[in-house]
From TrEMBL, chain A:
Solute-binding protein family domain ranges (all copies): 88-160, 269-577
PROSITE patterns: TAT (PS51318)
GO cellular component, one term: outer membrane-bounded periplasmic space
Protein's name in the database: Oligopeptide-binding protein OppA
Alphabetized InterPro entries for the sequence: Peptide/Ni-bd, SBP_5, SBP_5_dom, TAT_signal
Record-linked CDD domains: PBP2_OppA
Entry-linked Gene3D superfamilies: Dipeptide-binding Protein, Domain 3 (3.10.105.10), Periplasmic binding protein-like II (3.40.190.10)
Gene Ontology biological process terms, A to Z: peptide transport
Automatic annotation (TrEMBL), chain B:
Record PROSITE patterns: ABC_TM1
UniProt xrefs under PANTHER family: INNER MEMBRANE ABC TRANSPORTER (PTHR30465), OLIGOPEPTIDE TRANSPORT SYSTEM PERMEASE PROTEIN OPPB (PTHR30465:SF74)
Transmembrane region(s): 12-33, 104-126, 138-164, 176-195, 281-302
Keywords of the record: Cell membrane, Membrane, Transmembrane, Transmembrane helix, Transport
Topological type in the membrane: Multi-pass membrane protein
Localization per record: Cell membrane
Name this protein carries in UniProt: Oligopeptide transport system permease protein OppB
Length: 659, 309
């Protein structure tokens, strides 16, 4: 290289370096928020129909509103300080329930509007809930509306001959070859309504015996896409209602209209044929301020479900304009809760600003709130101590001993349980005596006092304390003598001949520490050897899902304040069962309870009876009930521990600093 | 000049080949890992899982998926929607996170170069003195101590002790300095050692001895005759150093709550977010490849003895 090139290059390098520093030093900081809190990992989505986790719910509860909302009700528990919550009016200013408990009539406020000023009407609920239940929305909480007639069939895509159905034509805005219609499922294409008169099916392919269940399910689903649906189509009136008897002609529809062997030229391509949920009897909207909801059976906790975010309203006009998930961008999203989204910075923060159009805006005190995305408890505590955060929900466990002595630390029991699943199909744990022996030999006090340290409550049953109206059975007692006796009875006196078991847990410091204590305790008390196996989340879930483990740790947080949220997990072949456990009587009791919604006391008794069976059979070893571990600055008022660790931000008030 | 252009052209071709290879290996590894992007504690019915797979184009055979996704990347530069951060496309995730990581890396590198070269030059010039020994001990410690330990000590000292930096977060110049220092410190230590070695070698060269014998002032000798030669090993280390400040930020991003792309890398892999993980791997590949090529190129320009091939 000639020297002048070299010199020019050095100059250039210098200029580039300076330019880079200038670029890197340019910041446009947001003005600080009035209130800032730790929100854990970054919310995956702000779509109430798609969200599942705690970080998502902390935002969604405050930017969207539904018919009802969970608010403090009554005095706090004298012993624990937990403030009971109940479902109270939100967009519905009042509601009445029919005598049989199956029909709810909601009277909506007439001053409720979206943050862009569009009024909220009862039709919005019909649309929101239909979207929530639509199979392509993939809402994981859709089961919460399964008590509405046809909701389950609509959600799972089951249709029978004779059903009143809808067929969505293949004409969505993005329905072009190679288009992105799969990510933009709403707005929907043209919908035709009618009565299903026949399903023409091509011959079902034969599946080899060696095929795995998953592969078979896939192949079956592919076959079903060739089905041709023959429908007596009827017209839709101006007001959206359908006269099912006024048939205008017979038409055929098929998902694979072009390739199906049983389709003909007349067959129209469709996205799917579903029960016409929103045109049937589940939801009725006689006028914009009245919403009538019908249930198949009385559900005593239905108001609680309506105060839970999946049933909240989503903005039809916004979603139809931008499509999902683009409508959740901070410059496009429209809210109806006490706050609206002002800024959304991935892995950094979500800036909330008071929604002036909220019907109760007068009661909202704090103007701007930042939800900081930080998972690390240490980092959050550092930020809290230096005044960057006002609320931390997850301080590091190692420091809990010290934090417990402080006034700004508020531990309180929560409706959630830490437990170990047992594979009841695998010896020796297929013997109930062995399961009970193991459960009884564990010293949970040591675990909660020495490891978790935040005042967790040792669990000897399934349902956490604090469920209104529910009295759990006594539970078992820790008793090493009895445990030894049971183990001997099962054929392993003094632990002799007991095979080595493996305890599976997902990678986390705390889970390992607890498992190690357990390992030591079982060795000392029963002479049982346990091997620990640590897996990262994805592999761990896979193993549990396939019931390919001996013992596996898990936890469960209540979706709503009713014992069924815990008991339903263990029904035979339930999606969350994953233990292989099955008990006919248990299933029956839960079914009886499900239809006994109009007799709350009897229902609770049935549930308690079911829990007793669970305790006797012990398909799962309960360890402890969680506590919430909130650290909150003393100048924040209106913050109190609640059973599900939910904290409505619009109830918070900041005290002026007197200094 | 033509040799430079042909060098760049050849490198570009190599980069395409490397990217393709990285894409293929990552694709296979991700599909081999147990669990899928939709596994969660709350299980979904098969019909719904099928819909989810269709939405993200995961319903075809592996071969179809391989070519579909590759086609999207090549023709539209579209890395797809993130499977877990579902409000975002992978391109958006990178667009939001990369500037943060880059900004952090720039500060860390500048800090490392300035501190490292200064320390290296001083200890070479004052070889054998206490200053030399203590700086080299500091450098060894700096290389050996992992940056999360360094970060914890730095937080204790600068945040809680001296109260001059905020504890964590992103958005102001003050917030970037402490993590940048922690990130750059081990690199600075390494550069100091390289600079010192290079200086000592240059100092013993004959043209340097001639310059000193001519009676030139010491500073002129060092800056004009010693430093350019001594910097060559430092320049060649800048490629790996960039890699280090970019990948080494994973832990620091957690500790200092920084919204860079480092933590996405880990989370995407752990949560089987196929598209995001692929986007991260490819982004890092491009960055590292480009940085190394720039270093090779500059090396040839600075050092007359090196020829581009």
């Amino acid at each position: 290289m000639p020297p002048e090139v070299r010199r020019a290059f050095l100059m250039l390098a210098g200029i580039v370096a300076v330019a880079m520093v200038v670029w890197a030093a340019r910041f446009q900081p947001l003005p600080p928020a009035d209130f800032t809190f730790q929100n854990g990992t970054d919310p995956k989505t702000l779509d109430p129909h798609r969200a599942t986790g705690q970080p998502e719910s902390r935002i969604i509860f405050n930017v969207f509103a539904g018919l009802l909302q969970a608010l403090p009700d009554g005095p706090p528990d004298a012993e624990t300080g937990v403030q009971p919550m109940s479902a109270q009016p939100s967009i519905a200013k009042s509601f009445t329930v029919s005598e049989d408990g199956k029909t709810y009539t909601f009277d909506l406020r007439d001053d409720a509007v979206w943050s862009d000023g569009v009024p909220i009407t009862s039709e919005d609920f019909r649309w929101s809930w239909t979207r929530m239940l639509h199979p392509e929305t993939l809402c994981q909480y859709s089961f919460q509306l399964y008590q509405l007639p046809h909701a389950e069939a609509y959600n799972t895509g089951v249709v029978k001959v004779g059903d009143r159905v809808e067929a969505e034509l293949w004409d969505r805005p993005d329905d072009v070859p190679g288009g992105d219609s799969s990510t933009q499922n709403f707005p929907r294409g043209t919908i035709r309504y009618g009565t299903l008169v026949e399903i023409r099916k091509p011959d079902e392919p034969t599946y080899p015996d060696t095929m795995s269940n998953d592969a078979r399910e896939k192949a079956e689903a592919a076959w079903k896409e060739d089905w041709v649906y023959v429908i007596d189509v009827c017209d839709v009136a101006e007001d959206g209602s359908v006269d099912w008897d006024d048939v205008s002609g017979q038409e055929t529809f098929c998902i694979n209209a072009a390739t199906s062997p049983v389709a003909d030229e007349e067959t129209q391509a469709t996205h799917g044929v579903l029960v016409a949920f929103d045109k049937l009897e589940a939801i009725e909207t006689p006028d914009p301020q009245t919403l009538i909801v019908r249930l198949k059976t009385p559900v005593p906790y239905f108001p609680d479900l309506l105060a839970y975010y999946p049933t909240f309203l989503v903005p039809k006009h916004c979603i139809e304009e931008f499509g999902a998930p683009l409508w959740t961008k901070d410059d496009q999203i429209v809210c109806n809760g006490p706050y609206k989204i002002e800024k959304r910075l991935l892995r950094d923060r979500i800036r909330l600003r008071k929604n002036e159009k909220y019907f109760d805006a007068d009661q909202v005190s704090i103007e701007t709130i930042d939800a900081i995305s930080t998972e690390s408890g240490n980092t959050a505590l550092n930020m809290y101590e230096t005044g960057q955060l006002e609320w931390v929900y997850d301080p590091p466990s190692l420091l809990l001993d010290e934090l417990r002595t402080r006034d700004d630390f508020h531990p309180a029991p929560m409706l959630s349980v830490y437990f170990y699943r047992i594979n009841v199909k695998r010896p020796p744990m297929d013997d109930v005596r062995v399961r009970r022996a193991v459960a009884m030999a564990i010293d949970r006090d040591q675990v909660v006092n020495q490891i978790t340290k935040a005042g967790q409550i040792p669990a000897y049953r399934l349902v956490p304390p604090g469920m209104a109206g529910y009295q759990s059975p006594e539970g078992f007692k820790p008793d090493i003598e009895e445990a030894r006796r049971l183990l001997a009875e099962a054929g392993y006196p003094g632990g002799r001949g007991f095979p080595k078991l493996t305890l599976l847990y997902n990678t986390q410091q705390m889970h390992r520490a607890i498992a190690e204590v357990l390992q030591q305790q079982l060795l000392n008390s029963l002479n049982i050897k346990i091997e620990l196996q640590n897996m990262e989340w994805g592999s761990y879930l896979d193993k549990v899902d396939q019931i390919n483990y001996d013992i596996a740790r898990a936890g469960w947080i209540a979706d709503f304040a009713d014992p069924t949220t815990f008991l339903d997990l263990w029904v035979t072949d339930g999606a969350q069962n994953s233990t292989g456990w099955s008990n006919k009587r248990f299933d029956e009791l839960l079914q009886e309870a499900a239809v006994a919604g109009d007799q709350p006391e009897k229902r609770m008794q049935l549930l308690a009876e079911a829990e007793q069976i669970w305790i006797d059979e012990m398909p799962v070893i309960p360890m402890y009930f969680y506590v919430s571990k909130n650290l909150i600055k003393s100048n924040v008022e209106g913050f109190f521990p609640t059973p599900q660790d939910r904290h409505p931000l619009h109830l918070l008030r900041l005290k002026e600093d007197k200094e | 000049m033509s040799d430079v252009l042909s060098f760049i052209g050849k490198r570009l071709l190599w980069m395409v080949a490397t990217l393709w290879l990285v894409y293929t290996i990552s694709f296979v590894l991700m599909r081999l890992a147990p669990g899928g992007p939709f596994s969660s504690e709350r299980k979904v019915p098969p019909a719904i899982e099928r819909q989810m797979e269709a939405r993200y184009n995961l319903d075809g055979s592996y071969v179809e998926q391989y070519f579909d996704y590759l086609g999207g990347i090549v023709t539209r530069g579209d890395l797809g929607w993130s499977l877990r951060l579902e409000d975002y496309s992978v391109n958006e995730v990178i667009a939001q996170g990369l500037p943060v990581s880059a900004s952090l890396a720039v500060f860390a590198l500048i800090f490392a170069i300035v501190l490292g070269v200064t320390a290296g030059v001083i200890s070479a010039v004052y070889r054998g003195t206490i200053a030399d020994t203590s700086m080299m001990i500091a450098a060894v410690v700096g290389i050996a101590v992992p940056n999360f330990v360094l970060a914890s000590v730095a937080i204790l000292l600068f945040v809680f002790g001296l109260n001059i930096f905020p504890a964590a977060g992103w958005g102001t110049l003050k917030q970037v300095l402490l993590p940048a220092i922690c990130l750059g410190a081990p690199v600075a230590a390494y550069i100091a050692r390289l600079a010192r070695t290079g200086m000592l070698e240059s100092l013993s060269r004959e043209h340097v001895r001639t310059a000193i014998a001519k009676g030139l002032p010491k500073s002129a000798v060092i800056f004009k005759h010693v430093l350019p030669g001594a910097m060559l090993p430092v320049v060649s280390y800048l490629g790996p150093a960039t890699a280090r400040v970019l990948t080494g930020s994973l832990v620091l991003e957690q500790i200092f709550a920084l919204p860079g792309i480092g933590s996405h890398f880990i989370n995407a892999a752990l949560q089987r977010d196929y598209t995001l993980a692929m986007g991260m791997v490819l982004t890092y590949t491009v960055i590292l490849f480009v940085m190394n090529s720039i270093v090779d190129l500059s090396y040839a320009i600075i050092d007359p003895r090196v020829k581009l091939q």
